[in-house]
């Protein structure tokens, strides 16, 4: 199949592109490099050095003989989006190309508006590009489990059969998202469902849990193929941040009671889920939703798992929760569609976490523990991105500068 | 109370501002005059001449001694939005300031993206302006019954208690909107609910039915106080268009079978509902939803009502439905919240329709029947705005020019 990965330079887009290419698909990547730009804005970079996209795709071709076509542009540029589809002529479009951090979207008005503008209007342009050209192309869109919030009933896969006053209907699962980022994905889902219903597009919405891990069999083949690893309070996902804190001998900072429960998924399962979705497309006119997660754990349980696996001493510290979210809640999720298609989940086990300790240990001199501290408070409309930042100027010890350089030019690092 | 009406120069914003002012409230109006701009873009104007906002507010002051403050600007301009709130210091903000036509949003990519950008990001700026300044201000937001679509269960007022596998939850009512415009309102509702839950804002979302009528006791006092009356296939609501077709001796064009059922409301009830919402505010942190409609009728029934009231001959013609919507469906709506607050509905009766015939008769020389014909087809991603338009140049007989002039300068007409 010809598969175009939008946001293919990011944390998950890149390993997905390699996995699909490794499985024999013709893969293209589009990216506007926004994720690398956020590093500059925040003054923090990936723990693992990330090579420029050209270095990455050249290395992949050198190692495998497989070429990955690249497109540099932005989905909010309708002309770019339309021409890219016309040139690459994909069978499936995998859409990772969105701002993906909840805290980033909650910094202030500017970042909230940017997130919804970028995500919602970019996806809208993409829907029109599909509607205008080839309506048979399968859209595989990354959503998030955070769209659902924490309802008191089972979270079904995107649709819910409701009985009310003796009548029934199958409706889009009611959502209660927890940030302007999560909201942007809810908006996307509604727009996509409408496009399927009205134009006969085919789409799969993958509501993904919190991803952990940094390596896939493909990215592990060469340092130039590594994907990013974020540990900061804005882009770092919770388990990845805990592993970094453990290695540095810092307490693992749990927000609030830690009884908040979330769906999680191993990075190796993420890339496999996307392959399964692409190879088993939705029907024409179908808006299909999969819950892309493999198990549910509370934040406390995740922290305790990291502590118990860590070979040294590690402690847990509870800090005030900067988010507005339910502290204790029911959480039960249906996630059988992807296993029915063949997914064999990697559950959170010692093996993976131990391999992560090694990755972090290798790059420990690149860690700035100041970035562990959450600075974005949900109840405020004007937050600092980082406590050392003053009026956009990086902090006192030049740390950001050093990180910035290594992010920009890892090959010279 | 101090009440700021955003979009106060429009079809409903203007009569609402007058009604609130007449009831003794201190009223301010903000508008970017986008609605007048769409007239120029389409080459069609309001059937009833609409005077410039300054002429309108001056006339109101001359007649009543009551001043209405005006602000010219755009909600997508965050600075303007913030400063206006800081200057006017409202107790309630009534938010009509959105692109409000479903067909307009379905013309093509540009109009869809404009609609969602304008509506969603404008409202997001407004939420931040409230969150940053005075979180006690009551937001009264205009939504639409079209957000719900036509579910097979009763449409409740915004929230639904769901039982699933023996557990229950109160969730946002699941929506299935029918155009990019309706979707923009669904996105707004989600954003507003989040802001109430997270920042403690207070909001009322008014899901309004299809409005009909052109006069309220206030607008009828002077020609300079008239509100607009759209009969074209893009901005004209269905009953208003039928009345114009009847007066002109044209068949009333019903889309498809006409069995599509919709909630409707008299313009005099609209302005009263908004007064009731303002004077009975939502609690802090509450996201309250009212279904602002008074009765449900099928399009065929609306057409038949107009035919039976019309003193002359009138016929009904069924044309292919340009929209993608259910032809025949269940439709039952709960709409008791506003009557509980004191609304005494005007149901669709001969009196109102007959007064509308008179209004249309008075301006019949301004009607261009070419604009009755729908040109925007839901299944297409690239529609013409009007069949006479070629590459943005107005048509053969100069009609648009004549209309354009009378819209711009009705005082000279």
Summarize the structure.
2 copies of one chain form a homodimer. Chain A has helices at residues 13-22, 34-42, 53-64, 78-88, 102-105, 109-132, 180-199, 238-247, 267-279, 299-309, 337-340, 350-362, 399-408; strands at 2-6, 26-31, 69-72, 92-95, 138-144, 159-164, 167-172, 202-208, 210-212, 252-255, 261-266, 287-292, 295-298, 316-319.
Structural account:
The structure is a homodimer. Chain A is built from 13 helices and 14 strands. With about 425 residues, the first copy, chain A, is an alpha/beta fold. In chain A, the strands form four sheets. The first copy, chain A, has a seven-stranded parallel β-sheet, sandwiched between helices. The longest helix of chain A has 24 residues, at about 110-130. The first copy, chain A, is globular. Mean pLDDT of chain A is about 95; it is low at about 390-413. Chains A and B meet through helix 6, strand 6, strand 7 and helix 7 of A and helix 6, strand 6, strand 7 and helix 7 of B.
């Amino acid at each position: 199949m010809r598969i175009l990965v939008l946001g293919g330079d990011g944390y998950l887009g890149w390993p997905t592109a390699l996995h699909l290419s490794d499985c024999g698909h013709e893969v293209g990547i589009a990216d506007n490099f926004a994720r690398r730009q956020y590093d500059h804005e925040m003054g923090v970079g990936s723990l693992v050095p990330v090579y420029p996209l050209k270095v990455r795709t050249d290395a992949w071709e050198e190692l495998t003989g497989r070429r990955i076509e690249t497109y540099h542009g932005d989905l909010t540029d309708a002309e770019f989006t339309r021409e890219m589809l016309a040139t690459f002529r994909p069978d499936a479009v995998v859409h990772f190309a969105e701002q993906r951090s909840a805290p980033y979207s909650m910094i202030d008005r500017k970042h909230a508006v940017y997130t919804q503008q970028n995500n919602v209007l970019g996806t809208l342009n993409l829907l029109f590009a599909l509607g205008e050209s080839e309506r048979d192309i399968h859209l595989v869109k990354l959503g998030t489990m955070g769209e659902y919030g924490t309802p008191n009933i089972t979270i079904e896969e995107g649709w819910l059969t409701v009985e009310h006053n003796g009548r029934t209907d199958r409706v889009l699962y009611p959502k209660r998202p927890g940030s302007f980022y999560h909201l942007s994905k809810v908006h996307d889902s509604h727009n996509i469902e409408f496009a399927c219903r009205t134009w006969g597009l085919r789409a799969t919405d993958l509501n993904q849990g919190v991803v952990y891990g940094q390596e896939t069999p493909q990215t592990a083949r060469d340092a130039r193929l590594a994907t990013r690893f974020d540990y900061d309070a804005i882009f770092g996902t919770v388990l990845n941040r805990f592993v970094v804190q453990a290695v540095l001998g810092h307490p693992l900072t749990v927000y609030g009671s830690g009884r908040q429960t979330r769906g999680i998924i191993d990075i190796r399962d993420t890339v496999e889920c996307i392959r399964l979705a692409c190879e088993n497309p939705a029907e024409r006119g179908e808006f299909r939703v999969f819950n892309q997660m493999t198990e549910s754990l509370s934040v406390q349980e995740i922290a305790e798992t990291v502590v118990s696996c860590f070979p040294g001493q590690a402690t847990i510290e509870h800090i005030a929760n900067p988010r507005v979210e339910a502290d204790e809640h029911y959480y039960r999720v249906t996630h059988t569609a992807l296993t029915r298609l063949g997914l064999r989940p990697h559950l959170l086990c010692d093996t993976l976490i131990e391999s992560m300790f090694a990755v972090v240990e290798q790059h420990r001199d690149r860690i700035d523990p100041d970035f562990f501290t959450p600075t974005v408070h949900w109840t405020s409309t004007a937050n600092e991105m980082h406590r050392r930042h003053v009026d956009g100027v990086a902090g006192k010890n030049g740390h950001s500068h050093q990180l910035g350089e290594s992010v920009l030019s890892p090959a010279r690092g």
